[in-house]
Each structure stands twice: as structure tokens, then as C-alpha cells.
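Sequence in, structure out.
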Amino acid sequence: PANRLNYMRMLQAVSQPELDSRGIENAIKSEASLCYRLLRYLNSATFGFATEIHSVRHALAMLGEREVRRWVRLVATLAAGQDKPSDLILSALVRARFCETLSSKIQHGGSDLFLLGLISAMDSILGIPMSDVLENVPLDQETAAVLRGGASPLRPLYQLMLAQESGNWESVPALTRQLSLDETEVAAASAEAMQWAREVTSS
């Protein structure tokens, strides 16, 4: 459907090395609900800006590049999955936050681990093969490889993410050691990711 194609375009725009602010602005403007969410988000007490923000361009300028990428990914994922079971969206957000939380503790090169977790569920959210998702969203080589099922330095983290999600506790100790992590911090990251994802979906 056209609106899902638009969400894919948004993910594509914020995954480029150079952020295309005009392209993102146009994509958000074409979806009234996204415009509303963005402006409501920035005018909330969370930010406490002195003046109200009334335009998408002003909003994007105030957020900054890192937060623009993060916000668009979150909202596009939530919007794309609005007719899907809530557990699927929750799972995508938990995966993203879990990987992001561990990013400071493991070697991951220049890969965006939040994006790895999020995109890993995008085939189910959009109802298309992962190969089609990867054709449309530019990702670094290591992330694309692990999502295709190939060899990648990110594979142990990807497997740990899935093991935590499915409760495959037999696999967790070996994967944790492989990543030079402590099982306690992995459990804490998983619990924090679940709490964060629930807060995001409820708001």
C-alpha cells in the first residue's frame, strides 16, 4: 500500500550516510498523523522549548541529526505496524533497544545496532521478504549480511537477541562469552529494553 511505501521511504531517507532533510520533510508532510506526532512530541514537556514549534522544517532543525534518525525510525515502525499484532511491534522495539543498550560494550564497527534490531522485524511488519527490505533500506555491509543469514561480526549479537526473545536460555551463556559480556548485564539490558518498548508503545 502507498502509505507503507512512504514509511519505507522514510526509513531509506534516515539510513543514508548523508541525511536528506528535505526528503524527510516531504515524507513526513505527506502523512498527517506523522506531522501531528512530531509536533506534539517536540512541544511536550520532555523538551521544554521556549517557543512552540509549528513546522516540520523547524522541528527537524531543533531535533538534530541523531534524534531525527531515531524518531523517524520509531514512528515509521509504529505506523507501518498499526494493523499488525501489538506483540510484533513491541518485539521490534525491544530488539532495537536491546542491541542499542549493548552497543557501548561490544565491538560493532560503524554499524547502527538500534537499526539492526528494528530492521530485523521489518519483513514481518511490512509483510514482505527481508530481501525486499534490504533492497530498499541502505545498510552497512555487516548489518545487511547478518540479516541475510550470512557471516558477519554482528552474528553473535543477533543470535543473542533472538535467544533472549525466545527464551532459549541454553544458548545465552556461550553467546555472552563470545561477546565478552556478563550474563547479568545482558539480563539487565533485556529488562530495560522491554520497559522502554512498553513506554513507547503506550505513549
